[in-house]
Amino acid sequence: MGALDEDSNHDVRIFSLAILLGSYFIYNSVGSIDENALSQLSLVINLTKNIQIKAGKINDEIDPEEYAQYFPSFMWVVRDFTLQLLDSEQEPITPKEYLEKALGNQKGFSEAVEQKNRIRKLLKSFFKERDCCTMIRPLTQESQLQNLVEMEMESLRAEFVEQVHTLRRKVINRIKPKTINGRPLNGEMLFNLASSYATAINNGAVPSIENSWSYICKNECLKAVATSFAEFERLFYEWFQDQVPMQEEELKRIFKQAKNTALEIFNKTAVGEVKDEFLTQLKKNMRQKFSHFSLENEKSSES
């Protein structure tokens, strides 16, 4: 973000894509959480214009809090922090409390104040799970800072090293798989999600969470049908081959066993509201295969 050779729309797209794909969004800034730092996050105002929950639905009709269920946890890392973490009564506060205080509404009714409060309101609405880490300068001497990448951790300020470890612990303990509608995504699903969002953005369209999720669900259901039907065929043919010819009741019994195994596989892997549609197709395929085996059994019995 902030590239000199790109316009502001580029930043919005990068920001939107990170929000759509991430399960833990880490935003870092320098100094403190003041009005200037918050204004840098004014990109949140445009998120509803650049991300759709449901295709074709005007985003102004959607409560910003609806986006929260799809948005990641939020961690604000404030680097080169020099302030003391104290409240108005000079009592110590945590970095998280410092963040919440900074996100409190400003008094006044001017347009400028309304704009400031709008950013704060949207940040709190979009990111229900939020936290903050403050970090002092790793070194005090400017000449050493210029070679920071070459410095060993032991050479840095002890307080900074402790803050690094705190940040690591928070991230590692709270990181979680990317989920949509309560379903954790596997690698292929996340890849397809990224591809769908990036294609929409590159084509100048607004990425739709619902459309992308529907696309993923259809792909997963197609795979689930193929995998479960292949297992059904394998089991049915294996049992059929060992016992043919057989009584019709026995044929129905092994059909039921193979079918139940296939349905169990399907239900574990298929996702989304289109699941029932593909389940109907799977059952139809299995019935057709049963009819085929039934004819084979009749021919064997006659011979």
CATH superfamily of the largest domain: P-loop containing nucleotide triphosphate hydrolases
> Based on helices, strands and strand pairing, what is the structural class?
mainly alpha
* Average pLDDT rating: 88
- Strand fraction: 5-15%
Describe this entry's structure for a reader.
By secondary structure, the chain is mainly α. The protein folds into two domains: 8-204, 3-Layer(aba) Sandwich (Rossmann fold); 211-302, Methane Monooxygenase Hydroxylase, Chain G, domain 1. The chain is 58% helix and 8% strand. The protein has helices at 8-21, 35-40, 47-50, 64-68, 95-102, 111-126, 142-145, 158-174, 187-202, 209-243, 248-269, 275-302; strands spanning 24-30, 73-79, 130-134, 179-180, 183-184. The strands form two sheets. Strands 1-2-3 form a three-stranded parallel beta sheet. Strands 4-5 form a two-stranded antiparallel sheet. Helix 1 (8-21) runs antiparallel to helix 9 (187-202), helix 9 packs antiparallel against helix 10 and helix 11 (248-269) packs antiparallel against helix 12 (275-302). The longest helix has 35 residues, at 209-243. The radius of gyration is 28 Å and the shape is elongated. The model has no long low-confidence stretch (mean pLDDT 88).
